[in-house]
């Protein structure tokens, strides 16, 4: 018998999310121990592969060809470093009832054969296509691998069915079409699979959020005049990697007159007394992401700054109260203010300010909640989804603004907030 977790070994139990709704979701340490049942990585891998197979069966496609590193990790549980994210250097094929194939960057394929014993050894292959065009298409690699993929699909008996592709270089699409492959949108198939998290995914997301709790306490202590936005970013990166983060994707650090309009970045601006400042920490633990804003004032706050914070808090509390199984996303979006009421010409211009999005191996998963799209295209909220909900309120002074974000897990009865750094009232760092 193969050592791999073969398709015929997947059972209906592999699709069970195994939720354990307790008084509080656990945030474990990073180690495996013998005296507590923590993350079950084998169960996690089986669940994700089973969810993918179910989503594929629910579609018109017979195979999935994946270049998105989040999808590759979801299906194969392989990851070779955050540097791979924008390289277009790896790909994966899941076809019929066969085990997944993964083509990897050089010697990484040998590493998988040795250490990733849930995969078929002869399905761990070295291969590369275009690397974002740096290997020109006329070198023939795309044609070579398109032929190989077409043959594997034919061998699996799926040649007459469409192939779902998440994204690829334009030349790769042409190479696939030249082999007679009918390409359809595979990203929607994968996002459908990834919507509902199992217990292990929820624990990893909670652990990731708990790391950010600690970083915000550090920021609260360090935020004072003379410190720069980029100093806070540097300290946060250092702390997160020391805590076990595998990727600090970005940290927004925005203060003073930069708060309105929201620029979604950081600079070397010096923090000054009375500044309103907000931060977003985007990082991952074992691949599972955070998106977690907090707003602070430095030393003191004006009535206008307090008012903005109170409104942002009211809006986010209203949306949290709406999150429960069976509610549709338009009902959540309706409790948020209109773009026009905040001084924007339309909802497109305010997109991302009053916002909700799924969290998982990617920062933005389904469903998305926004007045720009959800009012006309509602989606149902389901148990096991994990959201980040974020609100933004510009202050009456014309330049300050408050930004709050909470991460929530949808339980059978409602939701549980897992972003726990105190935000019920405006935190004043180093109060005068």
From TrEMBL:
One of its GO terms (molecular function) is aminopeptidase activity. This is Aminopeptidase P family protein. Residues 204-412 form the Peptidase M24 domain. Pfam families: Peptidase_M24. It comes from the Bacteria. Keywords: Aminopeptidase, Hydrolase, Protease. InterPro entries: Creatin/AminoP/Spt16_N, Creatinase/aminopeptidase-like, Pept_M24, Peptidase_M24B. It comes from Thalassococcus profundi.
């Amino acid at each position: 018998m193969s050592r791999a977790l073969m398709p015929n070994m997947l059972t209906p139990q592999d699709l069970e999310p195994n939720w354990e709704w307790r008084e509080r979701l656990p945030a474990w340490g990073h180690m495996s121990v013998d005296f507590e049942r923590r993350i079950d990585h084998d169960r996690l891998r089986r669940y994700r592969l089973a969810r993918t197979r179910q989503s594929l069966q629910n579609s018109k496609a017979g195979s999935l060809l994946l270049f998105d590193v989040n999808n590759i990790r979801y299906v194969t549980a392989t990851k070779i470093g955050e540097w791979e994210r924008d390289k277009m250097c790896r790909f994966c094929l899941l076809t019929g009832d066969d085990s997944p194939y993964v083509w990897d960057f050089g010697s990484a394929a040998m590493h998988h054969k040795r250490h990733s014993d849930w995969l078929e050894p002869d399905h761990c292959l070295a291969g590369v296509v275009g690397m974002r065009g740096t290997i020109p298409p006329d070198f023939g690699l795309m044609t070579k691998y398109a032929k190989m993929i077409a043959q594997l699909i034919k061998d699996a008996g799926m040649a007459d069915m469409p192939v779902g592709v998440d994204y690829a270089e334009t030349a790769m699409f042409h190479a696939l079409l030249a082999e007679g492959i009918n390409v359809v949108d595979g990203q929607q198939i994968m996002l459908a699979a990834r919507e509902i998290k199992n217990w292990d995914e929820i624990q990893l997301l909670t652990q990731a959020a708990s790391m950010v709790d600690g970083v915000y306490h550090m920021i609260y202590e360090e935020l004072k005049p003379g410190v720069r936005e980029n100093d806070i970013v540097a300290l946060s990166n250092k702390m997160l990697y020391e805590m076990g983060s595998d990727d600090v994707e970005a940290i927004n650090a925005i203060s003073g007159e930069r708060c309105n309009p929201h620029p979604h970045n950081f600079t070397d601006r010096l923090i000054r007394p009375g500044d309103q400042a907000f931060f977003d920490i985007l990082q991952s633990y074992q691949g599972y992401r955070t998106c977690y804003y907090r707003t602070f004032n430095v030393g003191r706050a004006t009535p206008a700054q307090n008012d903005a914070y109170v409104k942002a808090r009211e809006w986010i509390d209203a949306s949290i109260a709406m999150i429960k199984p069976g509610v549709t996303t338009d009902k959540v979006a309706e409790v948020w203010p209109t773009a026009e009421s905040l001084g924007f010409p339309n909802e497109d211009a305010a997109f991302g300010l009053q916002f909700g999005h799924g969290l998982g191996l990617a920062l933005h998963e389904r469903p998305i909640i926004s007045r720009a799209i959800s009012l006309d295209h509602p989606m149902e909220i389901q148990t096991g989804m994990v959201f980040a909900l974020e609100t933004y309120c510009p202050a009456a002074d014309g330049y300050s603004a408050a930004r709050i974000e909470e991460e929530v897990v949808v339980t059978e009865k409602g939701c549980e907030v897992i972003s726990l750094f105190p935000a019920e009232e405006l935190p004043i760092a180093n109060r005068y």
